[in-house]
Amino acid sequence: MRASKSAEHISGAEKILNEKELDTNIMALVQRALHHTKGQPDLINIKIETVDAQKIEYIDALPVSSIDVDSPAQGQNILLEYLKKLGLRNSSSIIKKFKETYAMRGAMLLNADTLERLEPNLDRGIRATYMDAEHTALTDNGCCKNHFQEAVILASKVANAPNIIAEICISDDPDYVTGYIASKKFGYVRITKLKKDGCPYGGRIFLYRGRSGDKYECIDYLEKQHVLVRSVPSAPAKKIKEADPWQFVRDDLQERKESFIYREMKEMHSAQCSHVYSNGRDLLMLASNNYLNLSNDPRTKRAAQKATEQFGTGSGGSRLLTGTLPLHTVLEKNIANYKNTEAALLYNTGYMANVGIITALCDKNSVIFSDEYNHASIIDGCRLSRARTVIYRHNDMTDLADKIRKTPCSRGLIVTDAVFSMDGDIAFLPDILETAKKNHLLCMVDEAHSTGVIGKTGHGICEYFGLTAQPDIIMGTMSKALGSEGGYVCGSRLLIDELCNKSRSFIFSTSLSPAVIAAADEALRILAAEPQHVKQLQNNVQYFCDCLKKNGIYSHSDSAIVPINIGDEKQSMQIAQKLFEHNIFILAIRYPTVKKGKALLRAAIMATHTEQELHHAADIIARYVDEK
Ligand SMILES: *Cc1c(COP(=O)(O)O)cnc(C)c1O
C-alpha cells in the first residue's frame, strides 16, 4: 500500500498474508493511511499480489540492543565505532554520504570500500520490499506492528542480502531522532539520538562489500525475494548504558560522606618525626609507623644519598631483567640473617609481598585459614589466589583448630598478622605453629608491625615468644620501623626459589630504587646494632598506657599501636578533629578498615616521643573520650 498527497509520499506498508486474512488486513492498512500523522492522503494505492508459499524464505530477526546517548555527536561517534568494528577505514566519509540520501526515495547502495554508489537509478535508490514478520497477521488485526518492529524486519532482511555487511539508518521523521546500525556481525543496534530534534532529514545506506559487478544478485534479493522474519521483538531491548556513565561513582561518594567513612588526604609538610608541620600547625604525631624514627636518621639519609650518587635514582628494570643491584642481593642476605632464615626476597611493598606470596603458593585446590583481623593485603592475596579461604575468629585458637578439623584439605596454609595492624595485639604464634605442624599445614606470619618493635631486641614475634621453631613464611615491610619502603619475605631457599619463578608481583614490577634499598639496609644495620631504640619505644608505650589508665582509659599494648575504642564512626571523627585542634595528630580508624560500629582512635607511639608529650596527649585524649 502507498498513500500520497499531491505527489508527496505519506506512508507505505506491506504484508504477506494468508488469503483468508485479506479483508481485515486491507481495512487496517486503509485506516492507517487515512489517519497518518503526516496528513490525509488524496490517493491510496493498494496492490495485491499472489505469492508462491514455496518461494518464501524464513529468517530470524537480528538480536536487538540499545545504546542511550545524549547528543547527535555522541550517537555518531558510536556509529563510527561500529563501522570501525566492520574493518572500515573510511567510516566518517560513509557518514557524510547521508546528505546525498535525503532527496532519495529508496536507500543508497554503497560500496563500503570504494564509496562507489551502486544504485542503477540514483534518484530512486534501492527499495527493500516483500518482507513481513511471521505470524503477525494471525495474531493481531494487522495494524499493531510499530515503527520499531518494521525497522527490525527490514534490517533483518537487508543484513541477510548477498554482500551486504551492514545497514545504517536515520529516520526522516522530524520527531523521531533514534536511528540504528544493523549487521549480521553485531545485530540491530539502536542508537537513541542520531540527529537534532525536529530535523526532517534522514535516509538509509546499505553497505556493500564485494565486486561491484555482482550487485544485481543483491538488488534482486532486496527488491524481489519474499522474506518472513521469525521472532521479531515487540519493543526495544533494555538500555545497555546509563546516560551518565559516572553517575554510580557520584552516588557512591555521596553515600560515603553521609555515613562518615569518606576519606581525604592530609599533607605533611615536614619529615615524619614525633612532631610534624601540617597546614601551618606544629602537630604532635601519634599516627606514624616510623616507630624508631629511622626514616629521619642522618645515617639512613646519607646511605640513600650515597646509593643515589653511585647507582642513580631508578633501578631501570625488574629483578629478573636488569633491576638486580648488589644492593638488593646484600639486603636480602642481611634480612635473612636478621630473621635467621636460609634466604629472603624483596618485594616493592608489603602489600605486593602478601599478594605475591599467597597467590604463588595457593590455588583453587588449597585451603587458607586466615584470621578475621588480618591486613587487607592478606585478604586480597587470598581472594586473588582463588583458594578456599576459611576465616577464623580473631586470635581464637579453638575456633582455628575447629575449622581445620571440619575442612579437610590436601594443601593448606594458616596466615596471620604478627601484630594486628589496627588493634596492636599479638597473634598466639606458639599455638598456631603447633596447630600447623600437627595438621601438615604451612604457616605464614606478617611481621609488618612487629619487626623493630617487639621482642627484647626488636627481632619480632619469634623473639617475643622465645621460639626456636619458626613459621615457614615470614613476611614484613621496610616501610614501618625500618623507615624506608619495600616488602620482604624470609624462609627456606626452596620457598624463595619458587617465589622468584612464580610470584607475579615480584616478577612483573620494576625493582626498588637504590636509595630505598640502601636506606633500608642501613636501618637494619642500626636496628641490629642499637637495640636501645627498641627498648625506648617499648618503655614509651608502657608509659602512655599508664597515663591513659590514670585518666580512666584502659588500653594495653605490647606493640607500638595503642587502640582507644570509640565505636561510632561519626564520634571517632569528631574526637580526632578536636584533638587536631589541640595540635595532636591521631587517626580515627573506621569501616572498612575495621568493622562497622567498631571505630577506634589508633595511637602509634615512637621511640622519640618524650614522656612529657605522651603525658600531655593522654590527658587531652581522655578529656574528649570521656565526653562521648
Ligand atoms: C602496612 C602493612 C602491610 C603493607 O606494607 P606496605 O609496605 O606498606 O605495602 C602489610 N601487612 C600489614 C600487617 C601491614 O600493617
What are the main properties of this structure?
7-stranded mixed beta sheet, elongated, binds pyridoxal-5'-phosphate, 6-stranded mixed beta sheet, 628 residues, 19% strand, 4 domains, single chain, 37% helix, Aspartate Aminotransferase, domain 1
How would you sum up this structure, described in words?
- The protein is of the alpha/beta class and 628 residues long.
- It folds into four domains: 1-50; 51-230, no CATH class; 259-288 and 532-627, Aspartate Aminotransferase, domain 1, CATH 3.90.1150; 296-529, Type I PLP-dependent aspartate aminotransferase-like (Major domain) (Aspartate Aminotransferase, domain 2, 3-Layer(aba) Sandwich).
- Helix content is 37%, strand content 19%.
- It has 21 helices and 25 strands.
- The protein has a seven-stranded mixed sheet with strand order 15-21-20-19-18-16-17, with helices on both faces.
- β1 and β2 (8-12) form a beta hairpin.
- α10 packs parallel to α18 (514-529), α11 (350-361) packs parallel to α12 and α19 runs parallel beside α21 (611-627).
- The chain is elongated and about 105 Å long.
- The protein starts with a strand and ends with a helix.
- The model is unreliable at 137-143 (pLDDT under 50).
- The structure holds pyridoxal-5'-phosphate.
- What's the CATH topology label of the largest domain? Aspartate Aminotransferase, domain 2
Q: What is the CATH architecture assignment of the largest domain?
A: 3-Layer(aba) Sandwich
Characterize the largest beta sheet: strand count, sense, and whether it forms a barrel.
Answer: 7 strands, mixed
Structural class category: alpha/beta
- Can you say what the CATH homologous superfamily of the largest domain is? Type I PLP-dependent aspartate aminotransferase-like (Major domain)
User: Any idea how many domains?
Assistant: 4
List each distinct ligand once.
Answer: pyridoxal-5'-phosphate
Tell me the span between the first and last alpha carbons: 81 Å
Uncertain spans: 137-143
Strand arrangement within the widest β-sheet reads 15-21-20-19-18-16-17
Helix fraction by DSSP (H/I, runs of at least 4): 25-40%
Strand content: 15-25%
Catalytic activity: heptanedioate + ATP + CoA = 6-carboxyhexanoyl-CoA + AMP + diphosphate; 6-carboxyhexanoyl-[ACP] + L-alanine + H(+) = (8S)-8-amino-7-oxononanoate + holo-[ACP] + CO2
Keywords: ATP-binding, Biotin biosynthesis, Ligase, Magnesium, Nucleotide-binding, Pyridoxal phosphate, Transferase
Cofactor: Mg(2+); pyridoxal 5'-phosphate
Family: Belongs to the class-II pyridoxal-phosphate-dependent aminotransferase family. BioF subfamily.
